[in-house]
TrEMBL record:
It comes from the Bacteria. Keywords: Oxidoreductase. It holds the Pfam family Aldedh. Gene3D superfamilies: Aldehyde Dehydrogenase, Chain A, domain 1 (3.40.605.10). This is Aldehyde dehydrogenase. The lineage of its organism: Bacteria, Bacillati, Actinomycetota, Actinomycetes, Micromonosporales. Residues 33-240 form the Aldehyde dehydrogenase domain. The keyword Oxidoreductase applies.
Amino acid sequence: MSERVAVRKTYKLFIGGKFPRSESGRSYIVQDANVALSSRKDARDAVVAARAAVKGWAGATAYNRGQILYRVAEMLEGRREQFAALGVPGDEVDAAIDRWVWYAGWSDKLPQVYGGANPVAGPYFNLSAPEPTGVVAVVAPESPALLGLVSVIAPAIVTGNTVVAAASPSAPLAAVTLAEVLATSDLPGGVVNILTGRLAETVPTLASHMDVNAIDLTGVADADLAADLEVKAAENLKRVLRPAPADHDWSADPGITRMTTLLETKTVWHPKGV
C-alpha cells in the first residue's frame, strides 16, 4: 500500500467571512507554506465587504459585541496547539487571548468613560456619545505576528468599526489562522477582513480609498512610505493613527487610546422641561 500524501494547505485571504484565493491567482512561499498574494483588487473587495458590515456591527449592542470578542478568546484558547505548531510562542498566544478578553470588557464601558453630560449655560441637556468612525484599515506589525495583529484589530472592532487588516508579510500564517478562529466565533462576515502579501501593493490602495474612514499605520516601518500614505489618506480626511516606535510595547497595558482615536463624538442638545 502506498504511503498517504498529506494535503498541503494553501493559506487564503479572509474577505466577507469567506476564504477566497487572490483574484490574481498569485501566491508566494513564506514560512514553508503557500500564502495568497493580495492584489489591489482584493483590497478593494475587502473594503466593500467591510462597508457592507458596518450597519449591522455598529448597530449591535455594546454588550453583544463584547460577547463576541469573548467568544473569540474562547476559540483561540482551544487552538493553542495549532498556533504553537506555527511557531507562535505560548506566552504570546496567552497574551493574545487575554487581550481579546480585555477589550471585550471595555465594550459597554467606553461610552461612560469617553461620553457623558456637558455643563451648558441654558435650559438644555447637552450629551456627548461616542460612535464608530466606520471602515478602518490597519497595518499589522511585523512582529509579534499574532499579538500585534490582535492588538490593532480588537480596539477597532470593539467600538463598532469594521476592519481591513494587512497582515505581516513575513509571518502571515498566524493571521490567516486567526481568521479561521474569527470565522467560528459568531463574528459577522465582513467585520474583519485580512489581506496577506506585499504591503507596498495593498496599503496604498487602502490609504487612498474614498470609502475608508481611518487608517492605522502601526506596521509601516518605512518612514517615507508612511508619509506617502498619510498624504493619500488626506484626500478624504481619513483619521490617521501613526504611533511612535516607542509605543509598540505589545506586552504593556494597551490603554484606551487606540479605541478613542477611531471614534467620532456625537453631541445632542435637548431642552429641559420648565
